[in-house]
Specification:
Layout lengths: L1 H23 L5 E9 L2 E8 L2 H5 L4 H12 L7 E6 L7 H13 L4 H15 L3 E8 L7 E8 L6 H6 E10 L2 E10 L37 H9 L3 H15 L6 H68 L1
Parallel strand pairs: 2-3
Antiparallel strand pairs: 1-2, 4-5, 4-7, 6-7
Length: about 325
């Protein structure tokens, strides 16, 4: 029994210290505490979102907290260490305090909840669930839930990968409770499927770590004599290789091919334009004589029209005399 009693007392003491620190460091986005027993004394590690507000001006907050831990909770020579949380958006307790502070400032609960969900998911969480309970908009209490992604509710994944944080907000209508559940992005679920590629000839090669011996070929005396007769053969071979490399065409990029297509289309357009200009020039001299003929025939037609009524008048006079 004494062992279980000691264990329960330690747990009770730890929870009491946690509640005290949560009240004192509410504005500093308190994330949790860790207690360690050392030969020199009790070491207290605080996880906080805002280190400056936790320490206070000239360390006033730290001095006040150390005295309270020594007198009220009977810690032996408490040494406080403040650490900043790397990703506060993935800490459910810090996000619950942020949501509670926004509700206390009078912001609408739906807008503030959706904003926090967007922040958490943008960092890489698998899922979020927020519950707001109390007299939110009227004198009748109710519970509003907001979900996004996947959050495990039972089993081993819920215990290992889901972080739960709670906070309270005091407004005019009363006290409002806030609960935030965050499922980490590195969570491995039992129904996750990993697809592996089939082994190929290259992937099946096993590296034994033993270096293979180098194969040294013996050069005969005849080859050495031929090389001595033609000392410049290496230079000639290099020249031949360079010429071959120059002849090889470089692979064309997509942009180069598009530029070539544009050039060809522009050339075709210019050819069509030049052809149409030539055809217009050739047609103009043929049309010119037609216009000249029309100009010459126009005065003749006018003269014929003027003479026609003169010839008809004497005929009419003769008819009258008769």
């Amino acid at each position: 029994m004494p062992t279980t009693k000691d264990y329960l007392l330690k747990k009770y003491q730890r929870n009491a210290i946690d509640e005290y620190l949560a009240k004192e460091l509410k504005n500093a986005e308190y994330g949790g505490v860790e207690l360690r027993r050392t030969p020199l004394g009790d070491r207290v590690i605080l996880r906080v979102g805002r280190v400056g507000l936790a320490i206070g001006g000239r360390g006033r907050n730290i001095h006040r907290i150390t005295e309270a831990l020594r007198e009220q909770y009977e810690l032996d020579n408490p040494q406080i260490e403040v650490t900043e949380v790397e990703n506060p958006e993935l800490d459910s307790r810090i996000m619950a305090y942020r949501l509670a502070s926004s509700l206390e400032r009078g912001r609408h609960f739906r807008r503030s909840a959706h904003g926090i969900i967007r922040r958490i998911l943008s960092i890489g969480a698998k899922g979020v669930e927020i519950k707001i309970s109390g007299k939110i908009t009227s004198q009748r209490a109710r519970v509003e839930t907001f979900r996004a992604g996947f959050v495990a509710k039972a089993g081993d994944p819920a215990e290992t990968f889901v972080d739960i944080g709670k906070a309270t907000a005091l407004i005019r209508r009363g006290l409002i409770g806030v609960q935030v559940r965050i499922m980490r992005g590195d969570a491995i679920l039992p129904d996750d499927i990993a697809i592996e590629a089939e082994p190929t000839s290259t992937s099946m090669i096993v590296d034994t770590g033993v270096e293979e011996p180098e194969i040294i070929e013996e050069v005969s005396e005849e080859v050495i004599e031929e090389l001595e007769e033609f000392p410049d053969i290496d230079e000639e071979l290099e020249k031949i290789a360079e010429e071959k490399d120059k002849k090889k065409k470089k692979p064309k990029d997509e942009f180069e091919e598009l530029e070539e297509v544009d050039k060809v289309s522009k050339a075709k357009k210019t050819e069509k334009a030049s052809k149409t200009e030539k055809e217009d020039k050739t047609k103009k001299p043929k049309e010119a004589p037609k216009e000249e003929k029309a100009k010459k025939e126009a005065p003749k037609e006018e003269k014929a029209k003027k003479e026609a009524p003169k010839e008809e008048k004497p005929k009419e006079e003769k008819s009258k005399k008769k």
